[in-house]
């Protein structure tokens, strides 16, 4: 493993993997969070109408979709990032919608009775109240993103940790393979802890209720 | 239904469950619009929620991510004219006896204290009318009793008009100048009972143990009893036993 670090192979693969995962994950956050907030908060009826469709799309196994993405987007970075984005957005989107819809109606009633504008009800009541559920979605999304990253890299790639593991296995470089596996695991744990930490910071008030 | 509420009075509304007590409060609060008829304050028809009415909900409705102080400032933030919402919030928190608890979060407060915060929040917008929807139903009996006395003091000090929805006859008599009894569905006002007792008397004597109190309670109970029986019949008619079985059939 040290040799891999010294000659830079590991770093290069880590970098290209992280770049993919963060771009895909970031895109998913950018799209799914606002979309979820809007669907759950402002367009309830529309959300109810499209919910079955969302459920079906989210259930479609991404590995079966990967060939479709390759057909349309080629074998380059774009298809990999898109598939990571695709997988990651579902838990974020669905949890955000659930989070917003499950906000205690009495809080909204209270805010309305205080003469507070619709927009402020949204930013001061709905969003903070739904954050714990939203964060669960984000955490699930990050797990899915890593899953998909490695899968996509194993299926068709010339760099990244998934590629490194696959390639090492094919040429029987077992230590290199293990180095890849351990690195992936470490990153998975790190990301999960980072999000858990953020989640705790944001929803201190929820802690005591859950215990 | 027809009900006049006078300036500065404390009126309690009693009625069997499902008769529309909370709906009435929502109407006054401007949270829902009437199917027919109108609700007026000083001859102005209510068209929506407004800062002349503060509502206290049974479930406290505190924002769990804000501390007591920030919960009270919540309705003031929108109001740009308020120079110092925190100053106002502190004033009302002290009025409800919560000085020193400004930094506590709702999960760190007892049920009674949470309801005190909610009362402070409703008062902070300086409404003319305080609407209370079974505010003490979720707290234990002793706390309830203390909150009741404190509420009398607060209404006396702030000279607010209070509309107080409750299930409890004792609570209604102890707090209110007048008790309006509603009929089972369709809910209309059946009778209004005057409680000719000063607030001072309520606070300084054991009003609940007087014969006067017992006499009024008996009178109200007689009025209410038929309605409760009727409302039970309505419920039974609506949900026949077989239907209950059907509903539970999903085990």
From TrEMBL, chain A:
The keyword ATP-binding does not apply. It is found in: Cell membrane. It is a multi-pass membrane protein. Pfam families: BPD_transp_1. GO terms for biological process: transmembrane transport. It comes from Methanobrevibacter filiformis. Keywords: Cell membrane, Membrane, Transmembrane, Transmembrane helix, Transport. PROSITE patterns: ABC_TM1. The chain crosses the membrane at residues 21-43, 63-87, 119-138, 144-165, 177-198. Its main location: membrane. GO terms for cellular component: plasma membrane. It comes from the Archaea. InterPro entries: MetI-like (IPR000515), MetI-like_sf (IPR035906). This is Putative aliphatic sulfonates transport permease protein SsuC. Residues 14-199 form the ABC transmembrane type-1 domain. Belongs to the binding-protein-dependent transport system permease family.
UniProtKB/TrEMBL annotation, chain B:
It comes from Methanobrevibacter filiformis. Residues 1-205 form the ABC transporter domain. It comes from the Archaea. Pfam families: ABC_tran (PF00005). This is Bicarbonate transport ATP-binding protein CmpD. GO terms for molecular function: ATP binding; ATP hydrolysis activity. SUPFAM superfamilies: P-loop containing nucleoside triphosphate hydrolases. InterPro entries: AAA+_ATPase (IPR003593), ABC_transporter-like_ATP-bd (IPR003439), ABC_transporter-like_CS (IPR017871), ABC_transporter_ATP-bind (IPR050166), P-loop_NTPase (IPR027417). PROSITE patterns: ABC_TRANSPORTER_1, ABC_TRANSPORTER_2.
């Amino acid at each position: 493993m040290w040799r891999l670090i010294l000659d830079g192979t590991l770093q290069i693969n880590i970098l290209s993997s992280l770049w993919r995962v963060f771009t895909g994950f970031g895109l998913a956050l950018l799209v799914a969070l606002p979309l979820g907030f809007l669907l759950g908060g402002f367009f309830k009826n529309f959300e109810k109408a499209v919910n079955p469709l969302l459920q079906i799309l989210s259930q479609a196994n991404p590995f079966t979709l990967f060939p479709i993405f390759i057909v349309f987007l080629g074998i380059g970075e774009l298809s990999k990032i898109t598939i990571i984005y695709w997988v990651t957005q579902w838990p974020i989107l669905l949890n955000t919608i659930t989070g917003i819809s499950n906000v205690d109606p009495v809080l909204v009633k209270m805010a309305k009775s205080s003469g507070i504008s619709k927009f402020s009800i949204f930013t001061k009541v709905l969003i903070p109240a739904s954050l714990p559920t939203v964060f669960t979605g984000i955490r699930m999304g990050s797990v899915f993103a890593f899953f998909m990253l490695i899968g996509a890299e194993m299926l068709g790639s010339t760099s990244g940790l998934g590629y490194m593991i696959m390639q090492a296995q094919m040429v029987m470089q077992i230590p290199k393979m293990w180095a890849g596996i351990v690195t992936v695991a470490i990153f998975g744990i790190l990301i999960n802890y980072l999000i858990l930490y953020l989640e705790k910071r944001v929803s201190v008030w929820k802690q005591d209720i859950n215990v | 239904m027809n009900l006049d509420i006078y300036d500065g009075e404390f009126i309690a509304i009693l009625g069997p469950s499902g008769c529309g007590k909370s709906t009435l409060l929502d109407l006054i609060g401007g949270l829902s619009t009437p199917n027919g008829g109108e609700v007026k304050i000083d001859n102005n028809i209510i068209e929506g929620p407004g800062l002349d009415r503060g509502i206290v909900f049974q479930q406290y409705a505190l924002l769990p991510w804000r501390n007591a102080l920030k919960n009270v400032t919540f309705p003031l933030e929108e109001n740009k004219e308020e120079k110092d919402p925190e100053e106002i919030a502190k004033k009302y928190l002290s009025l409800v006896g919560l000085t020193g608890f400004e930094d506590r979060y709702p999960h760190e407060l007892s049920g009674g204290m949470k309801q005190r915060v909610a009362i402070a929040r409703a008062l902070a917008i300086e409404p003319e009318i305080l609407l209370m929807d079974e505010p003490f139903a979720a707290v234990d009996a002793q706390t309830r009793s203390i909150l009741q006395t404190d509420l009398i003091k607060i209404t006396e000090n702030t000279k607010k008009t209070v509309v107080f929805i409750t299930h409890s006859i004792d609570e209604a008599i102890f707090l209110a100048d007048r008790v309006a009894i509603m009929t089972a569905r369709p809910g209309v006002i059946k009778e209004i009972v005057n409680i000719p007792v000063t607030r001072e008397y309520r606070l300084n004597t054991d009003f609940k143990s007087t014969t006067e109190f017992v006499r009024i309670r008996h009178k109200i109970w007689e009025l209410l009893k038929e309605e409760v029986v009727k409302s039970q019949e309505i419920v039974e008619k609506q949900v026949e036993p077989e239907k209950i079985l059907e509903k539970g059939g999903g085990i």
